Structure formats: structure tokens, C-alpha cells
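Possible race condition, two jobs.
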Amino acid sequence: MTIAIDRREFIRSHTSLLSPPLVPEVTLHLAHEALPIWQKTEEDLGEIGLPPPFWAFAWAGGQALARYVLDNSAIVSGRSVVDLASGSGLVAIAAMKAGASSVLAADIDGFAVTAIAINAALNGVRIEATPRDLLEIDPPPVDVILVGDLFYEKALAARTLEWLRTAEAKGTQVLIGDPGRSYLPKEKLTKIAEYSVPVSRDLEDAEIKRAAVWRLASNC
């Protein structure tokens, strides 16, 4: 049985205040290494086999997307935004710093929802965070949907793409940040920017990942 723990205290105790290499304007509670915080999460919750604490890292796709949003603020300025699978809240925070009128950061991990709230306050922005799986409902009527690093599992990638295409058909602009995960449907996307992102060998297969920002191709 999962043990109730103070998520805020856990996050503060097992992370450090760090700025992602590609997005120095943002400070987040991040872990230095994956395995220790993963093991500690399982120990404190009394549950083995939990998913990795994705919220504790600034993934390459998210960094690229956050960088692009900050450098191209007109995309979100004065507009309503959803950050899907928000994790640490990096992309959501970047959107607010770029002038978004509102941001809903969605992540099904309760720790992520707590981390988003802590990180938003740390960066002086207001973000609504929800643990609801937005893929189970119709896309909300927002101006922009941002997605960082979500195409790492086949079934999830298929659900996400279908949901995003539905959103775009209703007039929502969709941007995806991804470093070439296995199930990224490149043939259905158009690359609009690319970055070299410093990452940890503890998380990736290289110290520098090439991560791109994509939009849905209009003919797919």
C-alpha cells in the first residue's frame, strides 16, 4: 500500500535549485542523478516498481520547447496555453514568462503537480496544475498546446498524436519538443527549430542531445 508522505518536503529535501542549461532564465527543483531519487521515492512510498520521477529532471525536449517559446514569445503572448505532461513545469513556466494569459500544466503524477506549484512560485508566475489525464477527455478550448518529450512509448505516442490532431482541427496551435524519441511521428510533423541540449549521461545516451521543436504538418 502506498504510504502518504509530504510531497513538498520530499521534493525540497531530495532536489537542488538548478537552472536547465538551455533555459538559464528558469530555476527548478531538480535531481542531480536519476537512480538515488527513484530509489528514495519507492522507499518513502513503500511501493516498488514506480515510474521514474520524470518531474525531477529537465528533459531535452522540454528544454528545447521552453527555449523556443521564450525566444518566440508572440506564439503564447496573451494566449491561453496547456502544457501536456508538464513534469517539472519548465515549459509552463517558460510560457508564462513569455506572456501567456494563462497556463494549465497537466501531469498524471501527483509529485509533478506538487513540483509544478513549487517551481512556479519559485519563478514568480501563476500556473494552474492538474493531475487529470487530459488524453481521456476532449482537448480543452485553448489557443496553444505545448508538449515536451512525450513520445517515448508506442501506445502513449499514438494516443497523444490523435488527441493533438483533434485539438489542431479545432483551431489550437500545437508545438512539440522532442530529441528524437522512438515513437515520434516525424512523417506527420514539420521541424521548425533545433537545439543542442546538454544533458546527463545518467538519463540519456549522450552528453549533448539534438532536440527539435515540431508542429503538426498541415497535410497529415
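Job #2 (started ~2 s after job #1):
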Amino acid sequence: MEKNVDIKWYQTIDSTNTQAAREMSQAAEGTVWIADFQTAGRGQRGNKWESKLAENLTFSILFKPIFLSPAQQFAISQVAAIGVCRYLRNKGLPAQIKWPNDIYIGNKKICGMLIEHSISGDKLSASIIGIGLNLNQREFMSDAPNPTSLLLETEAPASAGAASAGVPDGTYDRREELSSLLGYIFTAYEELEEGFAKELNGEYLDCLYRFNQWHQFMEIDANAPADMPVEKMSAGRTITARITGVDPYGCVILEHQDGTVQTYPFKGIRYVL
């Protein structure tokens, strides 16, 4: 992958994932689209991603992982999640991956992702990784139950020289943090390309939130509309189980209390927090 990263920074845009999709056929691998504010930022299951103007990192990365087959696409999700975890852990935070790729500090969500793939024949021709990392936001107005930010978790001052660059005291420099975070993600991607998929999978499991711990989960009706409340999606079915692994296709493997082992696809299970 090219080392000279093309970063396209917008004040306002509908969605960085959407813009990446518009340009991906002409854009180089590793291109980044970032916005101070997204008017139509998207999360999983059609949810809107809340982010205050110019306070967080909301961006998309384009990879062209033609060395992967479509069946291996979950490796891209692992790379992105591992990269964010490495970035946060380097800051002293106990970041974990809430399957499949949300990033948590304790029981609070600090980062979400929306990953979209394009397939050409037997190759994974393009992957757009949309990332929303809460950086400097202190107050959240949506009904999301458990948001947090890097600033809230560390209450760290701005990095050296930030004030002279026009960054408010007590906040993180978004450009510096983007550069640092991209370094971790690109390094993980290069490890995947160089054949370290097994090692990355092991690191992913080591970072996995509630791995091998007994907790409650809700089984989700596969036909439930995206805008239906989670409680109704589950039809009241709550189970106690533990995560024992994730299969090569990204499905989570749960062991029930009676010893039954069951595999669930994305959107097939929800954590009870």
C-alpha cells in the first residue's frame, strides 16, 4: 500500500462512507475521507451516528484487499477493530472489541464502525471502513445508553503545541490523533496482507469484550425491521451464554448453560448491558 496517504477533509458532508463509495473507483488504496460534521452519518442497522461539530473523528478509509476472497471479508473488520484498540491501549485505556467491531472502554462505547465491501469475481475488490471515534465530546444528546469519549476517559490536556495550533486547551488535536490512529490501522492491515491472519485473529479474541464470560444476550428475530426497538426484536427471548470464539465468517460462537454451542450471524444476537 502507498505510504503517502491522501486525506480529504470536509467541513460538512452527507456521509464519508457515501463519499468514499462515490470516489472509490478512481481513489488510491489508503485514501481517507474525514468530515467535521456529517449530515447523514450512518451506523449499524441504519442508526444515525451522533457527533458534535468538529469534536470527534468521523472518517472513512478505502482499502483494496484483492488478496482476500469474499469469504474472508471479516478479516477487514478485525484489522480495523484491532487498530483502534491498539491506539487506545497505547494511551493507557483498557479498550475492548464488542463483537463484531464496536470499541468499548469498560461498559461504555467510544467507537463504532460501518464497513461496506465490494466484490469482483472471486476477489474482495474494495472495503470502505467508516469509523466514528468519540474524541472531545463531553455531552451526548441521543438516546444511546452508554457513550463515552477519549477526553472523558482521560481528561488529558492537549498534546504539546496544540494551543499554538488553535486547539482549545484540554482537548485533543484532531489532526494529530487522526494521524496516530491511521498508523495503527494501516499497520494492522499490512500485517494481514503479509500473512499474519492467524496472529491477528488471536489478538482479536484477546481484545474481545466479555470473552468466555457468562452474560445475558438477546436473540434477535432475523426478520425484524431495522427501526424496531431491540426488546421487540428479541420477542422476549433472553439467554445466558458465553462467547467462546468467532468463526472465519465473523459469526459469534456462544456456549449456552446447558452445554449447547450455537453460532449466530451479525444482527442475530445482542448483548444485554
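Residues 215-271 form a domain with the SH3 type barrels. fold (CATH 2.30.30).
Logs attached separately.
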